[in-house]
Amino acid sequence: MTEHVRKKIQEISQGQDGFTVGWCDGGVSHFHFIWLRHQCECGECGSSLNGVRGLRLDLIPERPKPREYSFDPDRLRVSWEEDGHISTYEAKWLRDHCYSAEARAQRKHRPVLWDKRIAADPPTFKFSEVEDSASSRLQMLETVCDYGFCKVEGAPGLADEAGRLIQMVGAKRITHYGDFELSNKRMSNTSADMATLTDKKSINNVGDIRQALQPHCDETYRTSTIGITIFQVFEPSAEGGHSTLVDGFEAARRFREIYPEDFNRLASTPLTGQRFDPKHAEGELPRWYRCTLPMIRIDDDQDVCGIRVNERQIAPIDLPHDQVVPTYQAIRNFLKIVYDPDLIISFPLKKGDGLIFNNQRVLHGRTAFKLEERGRQVLTNSVDLEDFYSNLRILKGRLKPQEPIQAYSQGMVT
Ligand SMILES: [Fe+2]
Ligand SMILES: [Zn+2]
C-alpha cells in the first residue's frame, strides 16, 4: 500500500455529529462537525499555525451542522448550515490529523530503550557529515529523540567554533551560568564560561571537582528543566574522567516492574530540588532556585515521559508525616536501579568529541580523574526541548514532508 493511497478519500458518510471518512487504504476516520468547523483555515478563519485567527469559538454554533458537502479523492468541502460559510479540507491534512485511537498511537513517538549493551555500538555521528548534509543532521536529531543521546566525533575543538554544533541542535539556552560567548579569551579565562575541571580551592559546583559523579540529571532546581545538553571536549583528561550515561526511561521501566508501588509514589510525589549560589558571578545578584516536581513524569497514557533525578539537589523533604519514610524507601529503590552497572555505559571523550543528550531522560555522570597540569575542559551548553523539537520538526518537514507531525515526549512538562 503506497503512502499515496493512504491519503486519498474513497467515501464519506454523514452521521449525527460528524463525517465518517473511508480512505483508499481501507482506513476509517471520524471527524466531529465542531472539530471541522473549528479547524477551517479559510482566509476568514485563519490558521492555528500562526495564531492569526478570525474564527472565535464563542461566535460559532455549539453544534454546527453541514448544509451540504462534497468530496473528491483529494479534498472535502463543507458549507455550514447557519451562515453558509464554506470550508475546504485537504485529504492529506485530514488523514494526518485523524484522531482515532489507532492514529493517535501511531503518531506518538516511542523511545528506544537501552542498557549497557548499547556500549558495543553507541549512536555516533561525524561532525563534518552532520554539518554538510541536512539528512545526516536530521538523522542525528532523530537519534537523540529515539535513544536520548548520541556522540559526535570531530566536533570543533576550539571555543570560537563551538556554536557550530550547538546551532545544529537548536537555539542555545542561556541560564544564570552565563552566555557562553564564543571568544577564546573569555572562554579560557572565565570559569563561568567554561567548566575547567581542575582542583579548585573552594568548591561550589561539583562539575569543578575530580571525584566520580553518579549518574544524575542536571539542574533539577529549575521549573523549566534543562532539555538537551551538549558537551564539547576541548581538553580531555589524560587518565580517568570517562563519561557515563544511563537511560532513565529504561531505569523507570525496570523500577515500575520490580517496585510498582514505589514507582507510583515517585510519579505522584512532588520533591523539591534546590540550588543556592551566594555569588555566582561578580556584580550579580545571589541566586536561590527551587523547583518542586516528581522524579518521574508520566503522561496521559501512563507512559514515562520525563526523569528528574539528582540526589545531591534534593531539598529537605517536605511531605505529610506518614509519607516521609515510604518516599525515602521509594527513592532508594529507584536509585539502586539507576546506579545498577547493568544500565550504565562508560566511555572516554577525546578532544573534539561532542555528546548530545536529553537531560530529561538520560542521566550522565563521570568516573574520577586525576589532577593534571592542563585541566580537563568540557564546554556545556543546552537547548530547550521546545527548541530541539522545533528544529527537528522544521528539518523533518523539509526532508520528509509526507510524514505526519509526531507527538514527542514533553519531558517534565506534560
Ligand atoms: Fe551534571
Ligand atoms: Zn473558514
Give average pLDDT, whole number.
90
Top-tier CATH class of the largest domain: Alpha Beta
Examine the secondary-structure arrangement and name the CATH architecture of the largest domain.
4-Layer Sandwich
Total helices: the number is 12
Task: Report the sheet-strand fraction.
Answer: 25-35%
Outline type: globular
Termini, distance in Å? 35 Å
Gyration radius (Cα, Å) is: 25 Å
* Biggest sheet features: 7 strands, mixed
Question: And the CATH topology of the largest domain?
Answer: Double-stranded beta-helix
Class per helix and strand makeup: alpha+beta
Poorly predicted regions are: 181-202
Small molecules in complex: fe (ii) ion, zinc ion
Characterise this structure.
The structure is a single chain. The chain is of the alpha+beta class and 414 residues long. The chain has 2 domains: 3-105, NE0471 N-terminal domain-like, CATH 3.30.2020.30; 116-399, 4-Layer Sandwich (Double-stranded beta-helix). Helix content is 26%, strand content 27%. It has 12 helices and 23 strands. Strands 9, 10, 11, 12, 14, 21 and 23 form a 7-stranded mixed sheet that branches. A 4-stranded antiparallel sheet has the order 13-22-15-20. Strands 1-2-3 form a 3-stranded antiparallel sheet. A hairpin with a 4-residue loop joins strand 4 (46-47) and strand 5. Helix 6 packs across helix 12, helix 9 packs across helix 10 (260-268) and helix 10 (260-268) crosses helix 11. The longest helix has 18 residues, at 321-338. The structure holds fe (ii) ion and zinc ion. Fe (ii) ion (FE2) binds at residues 216, 218, 364.
